[in-house]
Amino acid sequence: MTVANDLLYRRSHEWARTEGDTVVVGISHYAQDQLGEVVYVELPDAGTGIAAGEELGTLESVKAVSEFLAPVGGEVIEVNERLEDEPNLVNEDPYGEGWLVKISGSVDGEDLLDAAAYQEFLEEESG
Amino acid sequence: MHPWVGAGLDDQRHILRLLGLESVDDLFTSIPAEVCVERLELPPAQDEDGLRKVFAATADANVVMDSLPCFLGAGVYRHVEPAVVDAVLSRAEFFTSYTPYQPEISQGTLQAIFEFQTLIGRLAGLPVANASLYDGATALVEAVLFSHRVLRGKRDLVVIAETVHPMYRKVLETYATAAGIEIVVVPPADDGRLDPEQVRAAAADRACCVVLQSPNFLGIIEDLPPLAEVAHDGGALAVQVVTEAVSLGLLAGGGDFGFDVVCGEAQSFGVAPGFGGPHLGFFACGENHMRQMPGRLVGETVDEEGSRAFCLTLSTREQHIRRAKATSNICTNQGLMALAATVWLEAVGGAGLRELAASCLARSEELKRRIADNGGPWRLAYPQSPTFNEFLLVGPGAGPDLVDRLAKENVLAGVPTATWGGSWSDGILVAVTERNSAADIDAFAAALEKLS
User: What is the average pLDDT score of chain B?
Assistant: First the structure.
């Protein structure tokens, strides 16, 4: 299972990457693997205010639906519109083309894990 | 103890001993003595044949819809009842099964539902229809909650025409109060139809949906295109409710005019009118919003051998997967009645449905003309407005009083509206279907003339 090194993670399996004043959010390789083939992604409207830990949207796979949560608080400034027609980008490239939303905010002060800690967390979870 | 054979005396004694009770009556001590009947004074026991005669005699004392010329409607309609409907319905494979929970094993049930959805979708003018809901009133409620979800819960207002069936509005009030949704009611203009500008003002860019009924509670056909337009101008969804589904045999469904949801009651399709039901709710919407749709949905697919097959589709909207976040607290359907509607529609056929609807319209127009020609004190409330098969009759005592007087003349004239009130004059809703013969219409006109 791949854990990308340059990202921070929530224990609920979302990742966050800082790009300037913006935090890009997606779900981890582990999360997409657990979900199975994603068939639909429900994203928030741009402009929505959100607090860390709140529900951002939902991912629907062939066998389940689960919510994904905001790793940081702020305002949703962009959503990945490609997912409307190509939801399986979340499976194929969870750390790249399969990103979910961009939030104007910062990872500072949020309770997030670095790659090594997340890897360890996954091993504990599956162990 | 056998699981489905009642407890014998020995079992009862055993259970009572375990419970520490003396007698079965001790189980019911919480019921106040003054409401208990010491002894029922029943007539002597009779054999089965004797009992049948007693009940048949009691039933014969009733006046039923078929006893007299009958013009009752107001949300429940009497139409042809082809024998094939009951013949198919009473097959054990259909009759005993509930909404499919282990669905793919019951391909016949799924195929019937798929055909129901297809028929409803075509009539509604929308691409997606669900496997049915309980009744028209709950279908309307689901349409409002659906609209609320589509707009992400940001608009807590629904604009609804006063000419939506008052019982439907009552059911909506119950749900809306609990969901924190405010209801604004728009009365009809002088012609009994909605004024789009009044709807626009009421919605005021704050409504999640605009709900109207067409043909409306007064029987009048609304002008749908401008109403869809004002709903959309204000960022709301447009919802059409239909209580007389046979009207869709002549009138295009709201989907053809831009309505986002067409829902309502399909009892007219092969479900006989009965006290309290069963009824049959339907719900159709566009593909853009189908993930917010309530209820079950059957899709067509292929099995592993490549043959046509059916399966439940988009189940992730439903309770057994989404739990509290399901699109509805009702994730079942009205399976047997949906089957009745499917068999009925397929027996009647497309051209047949059009003919049947045309016959309703023609007979209704004939009775309207006879009443107008009559020149008596009773008249049409909205003589200039287009109706399908129902209209409001007003005049002196036009309400329960006139209904009683006409019943004495052996005519079941219709449903008095006084029970529900409204910004219009109280009157009698008169419904005319293909089941009303020329003799029925003569009888109505003659009785009215006699009372004039």
Answer: 94
- Best probe of the A interface among B312, B316, B321, by most A CBs < 10 A, is B316
Residues of B in contact with A64 (CB under 8 A): 316, 321
Residue B400, amino acid: P
DSSP letters, A54-87, are SEEEEEEESS-EEEEE-SS-EEEEEE-GGGGT-T
Tokens of A56: 């951002």
Cβ partners under 8 Å of residue B52, min gap 6: none
Residues in chain B with CB shorter than 8 Å from the CB of A60 are 291, 316
Which of A45, A60, A67 minimises the CB distance to B316?
A60
> Which residues sit opposite A68 in a β-bridge?
A57
pLDDT, tens digit (0-9, with 9 covering 90-100), for B40-77? 888 899 999 999 999 999 999 988 888 899 999 999 99
- DSSP letter (8 states) at residue B269: T
| Cross-chain Cβ contact A42/B325 below 8 Å | no
pTM to 2 decimal places: 0.87
**Contact list, B323 vs chain A (CB under 8 Å):** none
CB contact under 8 A, A45 and B152: yes
Q: Which domain holds residue A91?
A: 8-126
pLDDT at B101: 67
pLDDT value at residue B1? 60
The number of folded domains in chain A is: 1
Residues 6+ apart with CB under 8 A from A93: none
Cα B181 from chain centroid? 23
ipTM of the complex: 0.75
Contact of A42 with chain B, judged by CB distance below 8 Å, is answered with yes
Q: Which overall architecture, per CATH, does domain B350-451 show?
A: Alpha-Beta Complex (3.90)
Cβ atoms B440, B431 nearer than 8 A = no
pLDDT above 90 covers a percentage of chain B that reads 82
Domain B83-348: state its class: alpha beta
